[in-house]
Amino acid sequence: MRRILAVDDDNDILEVLQFILEDSGYEVDTLSDGHFLFEKIRDHTPDLILLDIMLGNLDGRDLCKDVKAKLETHDIPVILVSASHNVANSMHQKGAPNAFIAKPFDINELLNVIRLQLPAA
């Protein structure tokens, strides 16, 4: 079963994501504090990360760059999620996410983007 790590500082959004993704057959880990991202990755290596851009005092775009910069995590697809940021400029720079989804997201679009980013099992 494919494992997805959802990172968002809004627990309601995490609950919705967990419900949708588990209902679609994924194993889901959630994290509400980006400071613990690499500990969570180390403990439960995800096949994909859904990462909110606004994480309290952290910027998900910076966390994405960190994931992409580390040898042990650079192959994990990262999908950035945001209601208020346009990430068009950061989609082609070093450490760019694999995809972007705007909030509020359509469930089918979310699942399609995830399927496109996960390599065939």
**For the terminal residues, how far apart are their CA atoms?**
9 Å
> What is the arithmetic mean of pLDDT?
90
Number of helices: 4
Classify the oligomer.
single chain
The CATH architecture would be: 3-Layer(aba) Sandwich
CATH homologous superfamily (4th level) name: Response regulator
Please provide the ordered H/E string of secondary-structure elements.
EHEHEEEHEEH
Low-pLDDT stretches? none
Gyration radius, rounded: 13 Å
The biggest sheet amounts to:
5 strands, parallel
Number of domains: 1
Helix content: 25-40%
The CATH topology: Rossmann fold
Which structural class matches the secondary elements? alpha/beta
Strand content: 15-25%
Description:
The protein has 121 residues and is an alpha/beta fold. The chain has one domain (3-101): 3-Layer(aba) Sandwich (Rossmann fold). 34% of the residues lie in helices and 23% in strands. It contains 4 helices and 7 strands, in the order E-H-E-H-E-E-E-H-E-E-H. The protein has helices at 11-23, 37-43, 60-69, 107-117, and strands at 3-7, 27-31, 48-52, 54-55, 58-59, 78-82, 99-102. The strands form 2 sheets. Strands 2-1-3-6-7 form a 5-stranded parallel beta sheet, sandwiched between helices. The model has no long low-confidence stretch (mean pLDDT 90).
